[in-house]
Amino acid sequence: GMPAVPPQTLGERRRTRALRVGRVGVGGDFPIAVQSMTTTVTADVNATLQQIAELAAAGCDIVRVACPSPDDADALPVIAAKSSLPVIADIHFQPKYVFAAIDAGCAGIRVNPGNIRKFDDQVAAIARAAKDRGTPIRIGVNAGSLDARLLAKHGRATPEALVESALWEASLFAEHDFHDLKISVKHHDPVVMIRAYELLAEACDYPLHLGVTEAGPAFQGTVKSAVAFGALLRQGIGDTIRVSLSAPPVEEVKVGLHILRALGLRPRKLEIVSCPSCGRAQVDVYRLAAEVTAALEGMDIPLRVAVMGCVVNGPGEAREADLGVASGNGKGQIFVRGKVVRTVPESRIAETLIEEALRLAGEAREE
Ligand code: SF4
């Protein structure tokens, strides 16, 4: 289940309307939710449900599935019913799939008005169907598919153009008294994206879904998303996030959760405080840190483990952490909750840390 809202440490969260995507609350005082998107063919129900289960196990809160064909639309009722996560159907081009997804019991619909011809004429019918089923809608504006009218007006996908597009669509829904909206204005450039969300946050009180679109392969996409989300979440902007990576979706979820934990917006779990090592290092810090991380990844209790290469900052960090090692002269002093409990040779540092970590985890579970 979703953890309780941790204490805010980044300043005021922006005040937004709240809505529900299935059992997950979005906006208002609800925790910031992590989303991802399946890469399976949606119509392949078993493969899609399998990937959704993997995403759920990784800590994903909400999943989105593409719906490009009639077979995909036909699969939505089973997927929506059997998925362990709330399912949002992602619709481009074909408004009839919007209605199919609402009928299928999807927890939400994402529409991209720039990719649906004469979308504006369909808003009344979509608003009515969505309201009848209590289905929220995300207006997902994307730099790569900006409304032709706004592209002509602004020359390119500027922050102002993205925001104008989103607010125009939102106003059409509002005219039909439909307000269960979430908005995104994605761009591949974090600078443009940040400005767009800042403008959007000032102009409306709808919850916002953050994303740097086409952020790239894992390393670049992680950096771009972390920088952009950090800048916005620092200002209290953002209610759901999706890290877009050219990598398996489980990786997106891991990165998203790490970003929220780094900002103190989710309770921290395993945190490795390891030094970069330098000319003073007296043990192989990279190897130690990698071994300890690999062995303890996925631990379900908060635990700060310090892996430090020498006595300069070693004892200080090791003492402050739940568990740590300060190394010197081929040996490691093992600290548990601030006290040296053992001194072991370098070859046994990693296994000792892992052993102590598992012991602490066992204790924590008993409490
Ligand atoms: Fe260098 Fe020691 Fe600091 Fe690690 S703890 S970076 S080895 S001075």
TrEMBL record:
It comes from the Bacteria. Pfam families: GcpE (PF04551), GcpE_C (PF26540). The keyword Iron-sulfur applies. InterPro entries: Dihydropteroate_synth-like_sf, IspG_bac, IspG_bac-typ, IspG_C, IspG_TIM, NO2/SO3_Rdtase_4Fe4S_sf. Its cofactor is [4Fe-4S] cluster. Residues 271-356 form the IspG C-terminal domain. SUPFAM superfamilies: Dihydropteroate synthetase-like, Nitrite and sulphite reductase 4Fe-4S domain-like. The keyword Hydrolase does not apply. Gene3D superfamilies: Dihydropteroate synthase-like, Sulfite Reductase Hemoprotein, domain 1. [4Fe-4S] cluster binds at C275, C278, C310, E317. Pathway: Isoprenoid biosynthesis; isopentenyl diphosphate biosynthesis via DXP pathway; isopentenyl diphosphate from 1-deoxy-D-xylulose 5-phosphate: step 5/6. One of its GO terms (molecular function) is iron ion binding. One of its GO terms (biological process) is isopentenyl diphosphate biosynthetic process, methylerythritol 4-phosphate pathway. It catalyses: (2E)-4-hydroxy-3-methylbut-2-enyl diphosphate + oxidized [flavodoxin] + H2O + 2 H(+) = 2-C-methyl-D-erythritol 2,4-cyclic diphosphate + reduced [flavodoxin]. Binds 1 [4Fe-4S] cluster. Residues 16-256 form the IspG TIM-barrel domain. Its EC number is 1.17.7.3. It is an enzyme of class 1 (oxidoreductase). Keywords: 4Fe-4S, Iron, Iron-sulfur, Isoprene biosynthesis, Metal-binding, Oxidoreductase. Belongs to the IspG family. Converts 2C-methyl-D-erythritol 2,4-cyclodiphosphate (ME-2,4cPP) into 1-hydroxy-2-methyl-2-(E)-butenyl 4-diphosphate. HAMAP family: IspG. This is 4-hydroxy-3-methylbut-2-en-1-yl diphosphate synthase (flavodoxin). The lineage of its organism: Bacteria, Bacillati, Actinomycetota, Actinomycetes, Kitasatosporales.
